[in-house]
Amino acid sequence: MTQCPIQPGQTFTYEFTLVQQKGTMLWHAHVSWLRATVYDAIVVYPKPGVPYPFPFPYEEHIIVIGEYWLRDPLQIEQSVLASGGDPSITDAHTINGHPGPNYNCSGNDVYKIDVVPGKTYMLRLINAGLNTENFFGIANHKLTVVEADAEYTKPFTTDKVMLGPGQTINVLVTANQRIGRYSMAVGPYMSAMNVPFQNITSVAYFQYLGATPNSLSLPAALPSFNDNLAVKTVMDGLRGLNTSDVPKEIDKNLFVTIGVNVQKCNRKNPQQNCQGLNGGIMAASMNNISFIRSNVSLLETYYRGISGHFTKDFPGVPQRFYDFVNGAPNNAPNDTNSMNGTRVFVLEYGTRVQLILQDTGTVSTENHPIHLHGYSFYVVGYGSGNYNPDRAFFNLVDPPYMNTIGVPVGGWAAIRFTADNPGAWFMHCHLEIHLSWGLSFVFIVKNGQGPLETLPHPPADYPRC
What is the pLDDT of residues 133-175, one digit of tens each? Predict the structure, then answer.
């Protein structure tokens, strides 16, 4: 999207300036399903002498939630796209690379944090998984959320959190229980109907100093895999700490539907290549347009004025309005098709944008973790059912400032941001299979005035396709 891939045997050095960013972020590859293994954390600490807006923890630990695949993830993506059907499920959930004792292959392969009784720890939680949203909790311990997506939040306490792929949450945990070994658990959240998933919980240990080495671990009670209320409860608790620049006035209102599609079979070998619902081909879309990735960098073609690689006609509203949740077309594949295209939506520099993201019921409603490159945004509202501006409640006082929002299953979310970062910026579902199926589009933000509001020249070692 913003560059061609770094070719085998080649290198490329990223240089960027951190201005207002703080806290925990995830970096990862963005070609095919390479991010299954090519990822890590970026942690931005406060400047010297600047305290956290919460009590300083005794220690901090990075906890990366991942997925383990016995097959090459790139081959999995290639085979699933060739088949037209659904992907296989991950072979294991992991915590810092360890599946834990619930899996036959890893009874002694368990990640562990040794803790001192009475001390408070900060856990930087990151979901780097491909296709699963996950619950996280620690047996008998409360989690105090203090940051989400690299932005401080007002503290709130819960016994579990849910992270979609790409999301980060920092929590404080106080070791205030009896000396022992307590399970840190990661389990799936699956809101879609009839979708297979890995339901074996990954476990790590939150172990008190003084606990015997063979102590039994107390289990963590995670919500059931389809507990939508547990997800809403966590989202309800998120409140931004620094929200003075929430856009109150809006220049551009956008309404974008998100969901899964089934295309009619148009392949020569339907039995082998049309294994989607009712003999169709699985797809996904935004405003019923499945994004077709270009084989060149869209950012570079935009910067150099090279035509023919994208069109500037992504619609700001759906082609038609209907009961998106309960009245969506579902006679697959006859009325569940999407259009295809490499379409972008152009914004003038400084535009104050409101974007309504609406889940749809074609194939199945589902919680979609929608991520925007180049920006964070204020989540000013969300709810169940179809978005209705006359009934929707917006929080313009202390909304959370995020870069990935889980659009509620069978519901909607409203985000606001100011388009003050020129370039070509991808917006997509962070469930990798949905991205592969086309659930994405691109914002192009034009230059403003002067060098600080202008897209810089590509570096000399910019990767070539």
Answer: 999 999 999 999 999 999 999 999 999 999 999 999 999 999 9
Question: SS3 sequence, 214-247?
Answer: CCCEECCCCCCCCCHHHHHHHHHHCCECCCCCCC
Q: Tokens standing for 40?
A: 């890590």
CB distance 26 to 324 below 8 Å: no
Cα separation, 210 vs 333, in Å, equals 61
Q: What is the pLDDT of residue 107?
A: 81
- Residues ≥6 apart with Cβ < 8 Å to 246: 378, 380, 396, 397, 399, 416
User: Which of 141, 137, 145, 257 has its CA nearest to residue 189?
Assistant: 137
Choose the weakest-confidence range: 176-180, 214-218, 307-311: 214-218
Task: For residue range 305-342, list pLDDT tens digits in order.
Answer: 998 999 999 999 999 999 999 999 999 999 999 999 99
| C-alpha dist (Å) from residue 113 to 123, 332, 381 | 10, 49, 37
Asked if residue 102 lies in contact with residue 203, where contact means CB atoms within 8 angstroms, the answer is yes
- Evaluate the CA torsion angle 442, 39, 204, 51 in order and state its sign: negative
Closest CA to 87 of 67, 59, 103, 107: 67
Angle formed at CA 234 by CA 153 and CA 236, multiple of 5 degrees = 75
Average pLDDT over residues 207-233: 94
* pLDDT tens string 108-134: 889 999 999 999 999 999 999 999 999
The Cα-based distances of 426 to 3, 128, 439 in angstroms read 12, 18, 11
- Which token pair is 464? 């070539």
Q: What is the pTM of this model?
A: 0.96
Tell whether omega for the bond before 333 is within 30 degrees of 0, i.e. cis. yes
Cα atoms in the Cβ-side hemisphere of radius 13 Å centred on 256: 31
- E runs forming strands in 264-373: 281-286, 289-291, 339-341, 344-347, 352-359, 368-372
User: Quick one: tokens of 424?
Assistant: 């070509």
Percent of the chain with pLDDT over 70: 100
B/e letters for 341-363, b = 16+ CB within 10 Å, e = fewer, are: bbbbbebebebbbbbbbbbbbbb
